[in-house]
Amino acid sequence: MDAAEDTSRRQADGNQARPSREPTHPASTPHAERPQPSGPGTPPPPSRGERYRRQRKKQILRIFTWIAAAVMVVVLVLLGYIGVEYVNLDRGLNRSDAVKDAHGGAVREPTGDVNILLMGLDSRLDLRGKPLPKDIYDAMHTGNSTIGGMNTNVLMLLHLPGGGRPATVIQIPRDDFVDFPGCPRNKCDGKIKESYDVAFQARQEELQKISGISDEEKHRQARDAGRAQSIRTVEAFLGKSVVVDHFIEVTMVAFYEIAQVVQPVTVCLKQDTKDNYSGADFKAGKQQISAEQAMSFVRQRRDALGDTAFSDLDRERRQQAFMASLAHQLKQKDTFVNPSRLDGLIDVAKKNIAVSEGLSPLDLARQAKQLTDGKVTFYTLPVVEFFTDKYGSSANRVDVPRIQATVAELLSAGKNAPATSSTTPTPRPAVSVVNASGVSGAASTLSEALAAAGYPRGGVGNAPAIQVGTFVQHAPGEAGAAAELITVLGPDATPLESTELRPGTLRVTLGTNFRMPPALGGTGSARTTPTAPAPSSATPLPPSTVGTGAKDEDTSATTLTALSGGGIPCVK
């Protein structure tokens, strides 16, 4: 999220998200006054004076969606190299129980596979909620601690399969419009990047009413609430095939402290490209870029030389290409055999990175050897279309059933027995239905339809009052079962956690917005002949390979793209 947009959203008290995309007209700084970036292979001069810094400030304020991605790959590659020499990293990392909180206190039994949610925040506060030193703000040209928020502008699921099989990184577009399990702060949906911030704000407001708790502790608890909410939201969105085992959270200041170590980085572009908004100005082919040029490389999402299809998803593929190139380069350089450099990186990790309780750097180094060997594929999830959501913000419309089927397919690749072939499937939960729609017999009708679809019957009853929203309540730790039922009921239903329900049960409360879906015999389709989109929406999407440099690569927003690690990808 751009800094100015985030500030405006906070001034509105979070009630209505501002559009996350940049305006269609240029920024107010005249084009003639914009500093021109250096050539692709030439780092910029060390100093251009105060006027230059003022002109660049507005530009650099918008880099933060990629910073965490760059830092995370450094951290993951670092963990693959440290070995037993640097066990002090394990003792010094900031840890959190957010994964356990997200799962209602439950801990998944080891399966051999590990899922790690990588979260990149645009916060300008440290992990204790304190403003950074003034010289850091001045050096990064990022304003001060009042700018920025707690949005997860980078969300990636890292899947490390057992047996040394290649790793998978699934990048979730930050503007995907999804449901927020539990409706924190009475907000039940929004862009997926916002779920952390909404829960963070809700917990902060609760803690303000409690005395005797330090500001630092309040900030820590609020961040844990945001982390847990992001985990629940991602799991509900990606489906039952995904259970998050660990998380790694990085804030933007880590990049500033690492950038001088990793530059320059070699990247590759398929075509000449230029963008006055981001300052990108690159030629086709391989080239070395400085840390400052990298800011433009990974945040560009439009092209002034004729590529009108350039989008936010292309920017995410730029992030992936940068990560793959960086990982490849770090393996070639002496970064991890230079004691002073390595000590510096470890110090950055201790100060600016949070991880889940139980995540051991040494265990991860053994499990994540695929990353250091380049055996990883980056996938970008597709969208149906770009649209203006009900809060007036630019967002991505997504096909949740198809996303979930696609993710399940990606995570089962290479296994001898996919989860769907199990001879003892998990029994479906019993579903009780409460009628708050005002339509006589609606609860009984839905209960019968769900029974015909394979869901055991629960109770049927009427609510004391009519309500608008339709909710699917579930016991703690069973958000996946609710998400699966919602794929049957349709997008009008919202998941909601309830401590009153027993495990293995769900409760549907019908509101006035509910319409019986065609797949359950609703208006417009016979039960025996569901509409065409229903079966097709649950079909996994085939991936389209990108990063090879070929001109005919399909990088449209509706395409699932796959980019391989292990080298220097060439992207548009």
TrEMBL record:
<feature type="compositionally biased region" description="Low complexity">
    <location>
        <begin position="525"/>
        <end position="539"/>
    </location>
</feature>
<feature type="region of interest" description="Disordered">
    <location>
        <begin position="1"/>
        <end position="54"/>
    </location>
</feature>
<feature type="transmembrane region" description="Helical">
    <location>
        <begin position="63"/>
        <end position="84"/>
    </location>
</feature>
<dbReference type="Pfam" id="PF13399">
    <property type="entry name" value="LytR_C"/>
</dbReference>
<keyword id="KW-0472">Membrane</keyword>
<comment type="similarity">
    <text>Belongs to the LytR/CpsA/Psr (LCP) family.</text>
</comment>
<feature type="domain" description="Cell envelope-related transcriptional attenuator">
    <location>
        <begin position="151"/>
        <end position="331"/>
    </location>
</feature>
<feature type="compositionally biased region" description="Basic and acidic residues">
    <location>
        <begin position="1"/>
        <end position="12"/>
    </location>
</feature>
<dbReference type="InterPro" id="IPR050922">
    <property type="entry name" value="LytR/CpsA/Psr_CW_biosynth"/>
</dbReference>
<protein>
    <recommendedName>
        <fullName>LytR family regulatory protein</fullName>
    </recommendedName>
</protein>
<dbReference type="InterPro" id="IPR004474">
    <property type="entry name" value="LytR_CpsA_psr"/>
</dbReference>
<feature type="domain" description="LytR/CpsA/Psr regulator C-terminal">
    <location>
        <begin position="430"/>
        <end position="514"/>
    </location>
</feature>
<keyword id="KW-1133">Transmembrane helix</keyword>
<feature type="region of interest" description="Disordered">
    <location>
        <begin position="517"/>
        <end position="555"/>
    </location>
</feature>
<dbReference type="InterPro" id="IPR027381">
    <property type="entry name" value="LytR/CpsA/Psr_C"/>
</dbReference>
<dbReference type="Pfam" id="PF03816">
    <property type="entry name" value="LytR_cpsA_psr"/>
</dbReference>
<feature type="compositionally biased region" description="Pro residues">
    <location>
        <begin position="37"/>
        <end position="47"/>
    </location>
</feature>
<keyword id="KW-0812">Transmembrane</keyword>
